[in-house]
Structure formats: C-alpha cells, structure tokens
C-alpha cells in the first residue's frame, strides 16, 4: 500500500511509518519542517514537505494522488494556543479529508481524541475543552464525507513499550495505551476496511491487536 500520513513527524506517525516501511509498504509522511525529512528517510519512509495550515486542497491532493489510504495523525500539541488547535486539529483535518476526496483516496483514518463527544460537558480546563471541540468538529466533517473513514480515539498516550494487546470498542472507558500499540492498531485498521464508518476507542487490554480488530 501507499499510505500518506498527515503529521508525519509526530510520535505516533513515526512509529506507524516505520511499521509500514518494514513490511514493504510505501509510507509518505507530510511534514512542514524540511529538517524532518532525514528522520523519515532514516526509517524507510518518504517525506512530503507541506504546511497544512497554509496549503490548499489542490496542493494536498497532489501529495495524495495515487495513494491507497490516508491517515490524519497531526495535532497542534498540548503547548499550543486556541488558534492553532483550530487551524491544526480542525481545519487541517478537514483540508486533508477534502483532499482525499479530490484525489480519490477512499480509505481514510483519523486519529481523534477520547472525550471529543463530551466537549461541552466535560469538567476539563478551558484549553483542553477547545482542543476537544476542534477534534469533534473535525470528526463531524469527516463523517459527512463520501469516504471509507474510520475514527480512532485512543486513550491516554504513553511512551511505554507496546504490549500488542488492546481493548477496542465504540466505548471502552478511560485508560492508557502506548503510542507503539496505537501505531500497530492503525496498521491493522488499514488492513481491515470493514471498520469503515466506525468511531472506535482503544486502550490497553488483553486481546492481541489483530484479533481485537477482527472481532469488531
């Protein structure tokens, strides 16, 4: 497969690209900083230098042309302000989805956030509420598009070693999950188009990733 990943230098994206490249797939990470190109090439991935906050649909569609799948794994990050949470977590996600439609890339996976559907009622700090609302808006936009989309909402992300075992469902409850397992789960979702049209939560569990996805 040729898979284009938005947010290509993010922690999950780098792990995903490495997994894809290791099994012979063509992973293309979109990065805005040219200095990050070498990091992607070092793990066997390609890099496309493009700033999703400043690009248009035509430019992004050119990168997606010929791809078998698209993965949105970009994020403004916890230290960003409200403006960037909107331009990255919402607007860039919507742009990437629109470009997928234009390029004819049907399979589209978006990394969302657990709690996005409770942004208005959650007892969280204001900056996190803004983030959740941006994620929810991006989800709503994607769900309305004519794409074979899957939205993955992982639990609390950790840098622990992956266990290869998860719990995945429409609602799992809160819990941690290593970024390595999220990357492996994204590979499994790419391989299983029957998960299209689903919004799924995932945390660490006791079921092997491939088995858990097959059981959905």
From TrEMBL:
Pfam families (alphabetical): NAD_binding_10
Residue ranges of every copy of the NAD(P)-binding domain listed in the record: 7-193
TM region positions: none
Coiled-coil boundaries: none
Name of this chain's protein: NAD-dependent dehydratase
Taxonomic lineage from the root: Bacteria, Bacillati, Actinomycetota, Actinomycetes, Pseudonocardiales
